[in-house]
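Issue: copy button drops trailing tokens. Both records pasted manually instead:
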Amino acid sequence: MTARPHLRAALAVLALAALAGCVTPVRKDLGKFVAAQPRSILVLPVVNNSVDLTAADYFLSTVPVPLAERGYYVFPVNLVKRLLEDDGLADASLVHGAPVDRLGNLFGADAILYITIQKWDAQWVLVSTQVTVEFEYVLRDVKTGTVIWEDKERMQYTSDSGGGGLLGAIVSAAITKAAPNYLPLAQRANQQALAYPGPGFPAGPYHPEHKRDSLPGAP
């Protein structure tokens, strides 16, 4: 029996995750991050440079959980979006261009996370569909406006025939292109971005490993 398209997509993402797990992450200098000691993070509405109008809201929903699991207080993203709209900042690009101290004072946040979607698309390649997501993350300290962490992540999977031969490949690719499942890739991108040690955040104040990760030269 041929596997369902969404199951095949999920398996492809898991395979991608396993492959990514085999790569040794490149350590970043997190001195500014540790010095800033952020406890709370304000996640701004996402700037969407892709052609999918729904991408920003879908992706935004994947961000708070991994941040909270790293030990930080994360302001509720839907409430943040509504309050910003009430303050005259309805467009994500306007929000990203607003003064850091204004945004920080509005919510009482220690740090602000800016995210830009560069890719969120599905492309037909021969008899398969290639689904790609690409994001840029920037974290700024509210007190100084300084960038204390940044990262870029790109995730991709390609649909296959699932054992159905050429016809199965064509059908699978058509279904994937019609209803691509971006969320597993988006979730994996967030997990990779926050992986520590490597590109990601040291454990926050609400995580049991906070003291260890906050020490200079921590692994």
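Record 2 (pasted manually too):
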Amino acid sequence: MNTTIETPRHNLLIDGKYVAPANGNYSTILNPSNEETIALVAAGSASDVDLAVRSARAALKVWNGIRAADRGLILNRLADLLVKHQDELVAMESLNAGKPLSSVMRQDMPAAIDTLRYYAGWTDKIIGQVIPARTDALTYTIREPVGVVGAIVPWNFPLMIGMWKIAPALACGCTMVVKPAELTPLTLLRVGELALEAGLPPGVLNIVTGKGSVVGDALVAHPGVDKVTFTGSPKIGRGIMQGAASNFKRITLELGGKSANIIFADANLENAVRAAASGVFFNAGQVCSSGSRILVQSSVYDEVVERLVERAKAIRIGDTASKDTIMGPLVSATQMNTVLEYIDIGKKEGATVVYGGNRVAGNGFYVEPTVFTNVKHEMRISQEEIFGPVASVIRFEDEADAIRIANGTAFSLAAGVWSADIGRVHRVANELRAGTVWINTYGFTDVRLPWGGTGESGFGREHGEAALENFTEPKTIWLSFPQ
């Protein structure tokens, strides 16, 4: 008896229908945990993007013809469906992105649902102002949807960051063409299907899978796309800025990070090291706000290193389906090799690996949690984003030294500061160049609070009311009174 199981094949979602790619090409999707094929996914082309953009453009009038409060009800129905299908979505995200099931269930899934519900509540609260500019006229503003949004989603948090873009854009009345990361497209394809079930009109949310250099570039260049929102690397972000300049397309960029987590001698070291370990090893270090630079005051440097190594040793690596697994694999062979190359660079620069530093034997793209000491601020492992489970522990002497080192990179996404001195933590937080500063904690986010950075960490803010600025345009209306 033939027991061969056919590999699932996924098409593009355009105008409410699954559509085969125009070029007939499909990409192979691997499970990062064991390198086995789990799906074949359409490799979209520029012509597929054009079809999706035209569908989104036509759907704008339909979506905005629905009462704002009713659009909110549709988004809430989608949130209900995410709850109903959360076990399926969690398993899919874990399988596709190499994330431990427990991690997706604890963070990614609840955050995606919360984001959708939060912005569902905004749909009928996006308002303008009456501004009394003159006594002989009624002058006021309204906020209109920016139009068709191209959303380019990264592979490290496909479902969660995908919803960070989808929820506010739809709440503002925009329509969308979403390009999931080539490596991790499965959950957003399913979300697109559930959105139709929730009552989203065809064409409002289109999902076009494929390479960034093809689908992403076509979205950025397309004259029918009014706005691009992107999360990913600074290198790609620069390309998007250049491409968007061709027709003055609005863009929001959430890019890299090289965040400093500063531990002063008077901090609660148990709490600080626990959070520092989580801050750099969570999601195998594939986090834009990863606290990959751990700055430690000289008098407690050795103790912090010892505690950090103990925690690194306790991290259970393995099967992402096991509830005991803490750290999964990197997303791909390419990313694994990049991380291993950086570990070699650190050694050559003179830093010391006190724990880890190797690929885990066997199948899957696993790298050991790695701790470097004797790291100098100028080293590449201190300056460049590694996007893997690699901690650089850097010594500092006093407040001024800590601030100098923390602010001494091109990135400005996030930072942390640990101290029992309330005056110190406020002084340092005010001096740090970062979009988010955590005090005596690390890594928390909430959809109600703005998120983003400057410099090579990008510009614009996601989350909260600030995200509504990304997807609306103000319009001034001037009504003169008859004389």
